[in-house]
Amino acid sequence: QVQLVESGGGTVQAGGSLRLSCAAPGINFGVYNMAWFRQSRGGEIEFLASISWNGNRRYYADTVKGRSVISKDDAKHLLFLQMTNVRPEDTADYHCAADQWVTAEAMPAMAVDPRERYAYWGQGTQVTVAS
Length: 131
Fold this sequence. Notes:
mainly beta, 11 strands, 44% strand, globular
């Protein structure tokens, strides 16, 4: 059974940086579009960034644009999210998602019911930003 497993969460000081990873050994990264989402406690799921199957197109939410980079290593089946200048409002559970048919361009508008929309959805890694 294919799984997405996020890692890299923890507590980070405001103004610092973090790098999250999403391991997906059973997925052919060469054909899947992938994304990062997050959900704060009591909040809705929020789109953060997406990357196309070939890595040529990347999209970012305004809340993280300019301080985040989404990338992937196809050979290692890893997806990354690098975020700098983190803020207390970045505190949330971070999830990765993958789908072959939902385009990276469409993913920003598809944060509702992600478990129903995406072929694969990770369990998440918790990030706490201390002020």
